[in-house]
Amino acid sequence: MTLLFKSKGAMILLMLNMFLAMAAFGLVVPVMPEYIKMLGLSGTIAGFLTAAFAVTQLFFSPFAGRFSDQYGRKKAIVFGMVVLAVSEAIFALGSSAIWLFISRFLGGLGIAFVAPAVMAFIADITTEQERAKGIGYISAAMSTGFLIGPGIGGFLAEYGTRVPFYAAAIGAGIAALITWLVLPEVNRVNNGDVKNDISTSNQGILRIIISSVKAPYFNALIVLLVLGFALSNFETVFGLYLDAKYNFNPKDIAVIMTIGAVVGVIIQLGILDLLVKKMGELKVIYLSLLVAGLSIMCIIIANSYWSLIFVTIIVFGACDLLRPAASSYLSKQAGSDQGYVAGLNSSYNSIGTILGSAAAGILYDVSIGLPYIIAGAILILCYFVLLVVDKYNPRAKNKTFEKIN
After folding, report:
1. CATH homologous superfamily of domain 2-190+203-393?
2. What angle do the packed helices 163-182 and 73-93 form, to 10 degrees?
3. Contact between residue 342 and residue 14 where contact means Cβ atoms under 8 Å apart
4. Mean pLDDT over all residues of the chain?
């Protein structure tokens, strides 16, 4: 609890920013059908709008991370929240597809600045012993915003199709103002023992990603990519799957998603720090990969309302442990390049989200259960590949996922 109020309550404010940023991503989901009718758009355009957000985040995250390293975390967070507020306002006022695309591109840009800066801020104000817990708090806020965002959007849409976006614009604007007035700027972490030649080069996004293959934390980035793929694969067609197989109504689907999300966050907040201290990041990552993969596959054999809720809780719980465990490892390896590595974290997650969202629709059209088979199989494959790599890595002292005390 002390960590929440550290640095004048910075943790609480950072969690608020991440919650609002991720909720803004999901607001569009329940109202998109109305926008399609209202503006005469096609389903293809709607899909591209969803991808636009993650694509922009992918391309700008490393540069945004470098910005926060050079000019300060606070400036990056405030700038990102202001851009996000403008994005939501444009979506609320938009009367054509081009304005909606501009809105989503700006939204991705806003999150690209906010997410790496927040993660780097956490690294700046926590000790290595506190790091996993701090990142767990932020990941919980992210997960909650991402999963509850569609529910908030659906509720506010009862008062008008555009109301969710006006509310998001106001919320992001207020958060930016409070952050500017209250959040303290902090001294950046400086660890001379950790060298990262990649971070000193000014390269294009593709070169940065290619160069990251040489980094000692590359496998952790792959874990985050696989997680982004699996989660987006799971969530993109979950409502369609439940409707097609069980004829569930929106309320039934919302209850399953909400219970799964809330309990998953409780699991993360309650046991992540304990597990990392007892087992180390390595074993937490391995365990979470295996449990997440098996539980996602179990979606297709769950045959009742309560079994679906139970499986969904396990999926979200495992994923909510996996993300912060891998992010904590990355942070400990980043040294003075916290913003840059946090940007890579965001970029790899965005790649997974883009690929997963695109694949989910294609696989669903082949067979409604196929997205869950593929997502689970990829998580389990990642688990076994990492075991093999770790076992046969000749550099025993520099294993990709060695426990850091």
Report:
1. MFS general substrate transporter like domains (1.20.1250.20)
2. 160
3. no
4. 78
More confident residue, 332 or 202: 332
DSSP-based three-state secondary structure for 217: coil
Q: Answer for the pair 327, 105: CB distance below 8 angstroms, yes or no.
A: no
- Determine the pLDDT at residue 199: 41
Q: Contact 217/329 with Cβ under 8 angstroms?
A: yes
Query: Helix 73-93 vs helix 43-71: angle between axes, to the nearest 10 degrees?
Result: 160
DSSP of 219-230: HHHHHHHHHHHH
Q: Which of 176-185, 262-271, 333-342 is predicted least confidently?
A: 333-342
Average pLDDT of the residues in 291-315: 90
> Which of 340, 76, 326 is CA-nearest to residue 208?
340
The answer to whether 152 and 22 are in contact (CB under 8 A) is: no
Question: Higher model confidence: residue 90 or residue 119?
Answer: 90
Q: How far is CA 34 from CA 28, 153, 216, in A?
A: 10, 12, 47
Distance of CA 396 to the CA centre of its chain: 31
Nearest to 336 by CA among 195, 131, 191, 124: 191
Q: Which of 361, 260, 261, 353 is nearest to 310 (CA)?
A: 260
Phi, psi of 320 (to 5 degrees): -75, -15
d(CA 86, CA 113): 14
The 10 Å Cβ neighbour count of residue 70 is 11
CA–CA separation, 315 vs 263, rounded Å?
Answer: 10
| Rounded-to-integer distance, Cα 252 and Cα 272, Å | 29
Domain ranges of the chain: 2-190+203-393
Q: Under a CB-based contact definition with an 8 Å cutoff, are residues 320 and 143 in contact?
A: yes
Q: How far apart are CA 94 and CA 278, in angstroms?
A: 51
Computed from CA positions of residues 323, 324, 327, 329, in that sequence, does the dihedral angle turn out positive or negative?
negative
Least confident span in 50-54, 66-70, 160-164: 50-54
Q: What is the value of pTM for the model shown?
A: 0.66
Alpha carbons 118 and 121: distance in angstroms, whole number: 5
Burial of 392 (0-12, 13-18, 19+ CB in 10 A): exposed
